[in-house]
Amino acid sequence: MADITLKGNACHTNGDLPAVGSSAPDFTLTGADLADVNLATFAGKKKLLNIVPSLDTPTCATSTQKFNTSMASKSDAVALVISADLVFAQKRFCGAEGIDNVISLSTMRSKGFAEDYGVLITDGPLAGLCGRAVVVLDEENKVLYTQLVGEIADEPDYDAAMAALG
């Protein structure tokens, strides 16, 4: 369990992020076309997982926009923004914001993504959603970098995440 805060108020996640050097847990998330998506969908690519509570919050929107800009020149990698939002809301957000270098994925049918990645918020007003985190994987799904953002309202360390992605 990790201690995090929401605007200074304590809350917790169910566990810890996957360890650097370990193999990332596989997942099944829902893509924009309602199809199941897993790590194999992005085989041969480095992956940046931008895990957020909801795209309908200012910090989540900002992080998605910033990673979208950073990913414009990355042909060997993919950025995934993962939230509990329905795919319809994700598509509306990405369309309105011109997000075309980040792929949005929903936990709406997931059977354990948040738990397996240790980001499930277990208490407080956002219980049941994902905490804010970034996980970078290599082409073989080995964990290269992780950051659980201690204050949910804060942005992640973009420079460190992009440096880990290479």
From TrEMBL:
GO molecular function: thioredoxin peroxidase activity
PROSITE patterns tied to this protein: THIOREDOXIN_2 (PS51352)
EC nos: 1.11.1.24
Key words of the record: Antioxidant, Disulfide bond, Oxidoreductase, Peroxidase, Redox-active center
Domain Thioredoxin: 18-166
Function: Thiol-specific peroxidase that catalyzes the reduction of hydrogen peroxide and organic hydroperoxides to water and alcohols, respectively. Plays a role in cell protection against oxidative stress by detoxifying peroxides.
Protein name: Thiol peroxidase
Lineage of the species this protein comes from: Bacteria, Pseudomonadati, Pseudomonadota, Gammaproteobacteria, sulfur-oxidizing symbionts
Name of the gene this protein is made from: tpx
